[in-house]
Amino acid sequence: MKRRIFMEFQARNDRYDQMQYRRCGRSGLMLPLLSLGLWHNFGSLNDPAEQEQMLLTAFDHGITYFDLADNYGPPYGEAERTFGRILKKDLLPYRDELIISTKAGYRKAKGYLLSSTSLHIFVLTNACNLNCVYCQARDHEHAHVEKMSFETAEKAVMTALQSPEHYLNFEFQGGEPLLNYPVIRHIVEYAEKNKQAHSIQYSVVTNLTLLSDEMLDFFEQYDVRISTSLDGNSELHNANRSDRLGVGSFENVVAAIKKIQARNLPIGAIQTTTRQSLSKSKQIIDTYRELGFQSVFIRPLTKLGTAIPNWNEIGYSASEFVQFYRECLSYILELNKQGKPFSEGHAGIFLSKILSGQAQNYMELRSPCGAAIGQAAYYFNGDVYTCDEGRMIAEMGDSAFKLGNVYKNSYDEMMSSPVCKTVCAASVLESLPECTDCVYQPYCGTCPALNYASEHNVFKRDARGYRCQIYRGMLDAIFAILFRNDPKDIEILQTW
Question: Which of 42, 57, 130, 310 could form a disulfide with 79 if both were Cys (CB 3.0 to 4.6 A apart)?
Answer without folding.
Answer: 42
